[in-house]
């Protein structure tokens, strides 16, 4: 039996390129569809064994050509991050939602793919899970600018106003997107669910938590927080941590994320739906910034908490990784401290 052919959209990017590496290591045939708009030419880390098609996922002809002879699809293309302002809204919707719609339409027309894996995100949850001592599990309201200006960063119970305790969020949690990027990721998931119902093609949505590792883009408003901190340290500046730095996240290495994609693409045919991709160990943003500064060397400037905030951010969001472990066999393997040491010395690509 010949090895399957996998199309990786956005396969020249940060996560997509690591997915390509993982698939090739398993002996699969890999085709990349990437516009290269986020790159200064073809990245030198792309392996020669992968077929590269330069094209945009919003271009139906380019997508149709890329799908010929394909067995599996890993959809990584799109705009990421919180962005600059609401003025980015049309670009996010065009790249993420319209691009996904074109891909799904061409997939339905071709009828060839046996499975689709969609790159989703933990941002679909909005705030993470919270418990109130009196009212049990609750969903806090979006944070108010007046409270944030006063340095009151923790969400409170919507019923009694008391402090809440954060807990890991499960895949069955209600989706509550709180910024433009999050809204587009929810819509991508809903479009993919409709595609699965209409065509019977299994779809897995991998909800990535805070991904870090080599090949992240250099400092840009669309980069992840790890990239912003690494860029600051590389320039001899102290990482600037928003709020008080106590906000909790789950930092997962990009090689673990790539392995999750491999497992999802080769999962049992009944596997479908959403899966958290996370380390399972929450850490504060300040803790991550300090670990990165430690890894950068004894002379590296220490991170500072600025008290600044972005209204579209959430306070705490970290995941239960139980479903991915049980149904996909996925558990994060990369050590956090070692990953930070590697990341501190890894070159960041031009944004």
Write a structural description.
The chain is an alpha/beta fold. The chain is built from ten helices and 16 strands. The protein has helices spanning 14-25, 60-67, 89-110, 145-149, 180-199, 225-234, 254-265, 285-296, 322-327, 336-345; strands at residues 5-9, 29-34, 51-54, 72-75, 115-121, 129-132, 136-138, 165-167, 203-208, 210-212, 240-241, 248-249, 251-253, 273-277, 283-284, 304-305. Strands 3-2-1-4-5-9-14 form a seven-stranded parallel sheet, sandwiched between helices. It has a three-stranded antiparallel sheet with strand order 7-6-8, with no helix packed on it. Strands 10-13 form a two-stranded parallel ribbon. The mean pLDDT is 94.
Topology at a glance:
Blueprint lengths: L4 E5 L4 H12 L3 E6 L16 E4 L5 H8 L4 E4 L13 H22 L4 E7 L7 E4 L3 E3 L6 H5 L15 E3 L12 H20 L3 E6 L1 E3 L12 H10 L5 E2 L6 E2 L1 E3 H12 L7 E5 L5 E2 H12 L7 E2 L16 H6 L8 H10 L6
Parallel strand pairs: 1-2, 1-4, 2-3, 4-5, 5-9, 9-14, 10-13, 11-16
Antiparallel strand pairs: 6-7, 6-8, 12-15
Helix pairs in contact: 1-7, 2-3, 3-5, 6-8, 8-10
């Amino acid at each position: 039996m010949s090895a399957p052919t996998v199309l990786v959209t956005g396969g020249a990017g940060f996560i997509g390129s690591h997915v390509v590496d993982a698939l090739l290591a398993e002996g699969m045939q890999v085709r990349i569809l990437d516009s290269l708009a986020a790159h200064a030419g073809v990245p030198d880390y792309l392996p020669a064994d992968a077929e590269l098609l330069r094209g945009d996922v919003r271009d139906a002809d380019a997508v149709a050509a890329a799908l010929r002879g394909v067995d599996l699809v890993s959809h990584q293309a799109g705009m990421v991050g919180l962005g600059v302002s609401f003025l980015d809204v049309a670009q996010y919707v065009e790249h993420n939602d319209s691009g996904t719609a074109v891909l799904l339409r061409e997939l339905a027309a071709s009828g060839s793919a046996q499975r689709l894996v969609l790159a989703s995100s933990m941002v679909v949850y909005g705030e993470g899970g919270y418990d109130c001592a009196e009212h049990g599990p609750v969903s806090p309201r979006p944070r108010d600018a007046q409270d944030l200006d006063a340095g009151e960063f923790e969400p409170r119970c919507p019923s009694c106003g008391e402090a809440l305790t954060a807990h890991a969020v499960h895949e069955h949690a209600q989706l509550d997107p709180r910024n433009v990027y999050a809204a587009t990721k929810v819509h991508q998931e809903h479009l993919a669910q409709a595609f699965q119902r209409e065509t019977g093609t299994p779809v897995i949505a991998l909800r990535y938590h805070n991904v870090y590792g080599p090949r992240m883009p250099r400092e840009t408003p669309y980069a992840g927080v790890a990239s912003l901190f690494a860029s600051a340290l590389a320039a001899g500046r102290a990482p600037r941590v928003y709020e008080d730095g106590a906000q909790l996240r789950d930092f997962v290495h990009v090689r673990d994320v790539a392995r999750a994609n491999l497992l999802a693409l080769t999962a049992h045919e009944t596997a479908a739906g959403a899966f958290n991709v996370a380390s399972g160990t929450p850490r504060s943003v300040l803790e991550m910034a300090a670990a990165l500064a430690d890894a950068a060397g004894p002379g590296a400037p220490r991170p500072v908490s600025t008290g600044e905030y972005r209204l579209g951010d959430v306070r705490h969001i970290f995941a239960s990784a139980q479903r991915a472990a049980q149904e996909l066999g996925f558990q994060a393997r990369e050590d956090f401290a070692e990953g930070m040491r590697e990341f501190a010395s890894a070159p960041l690509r031009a944004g």
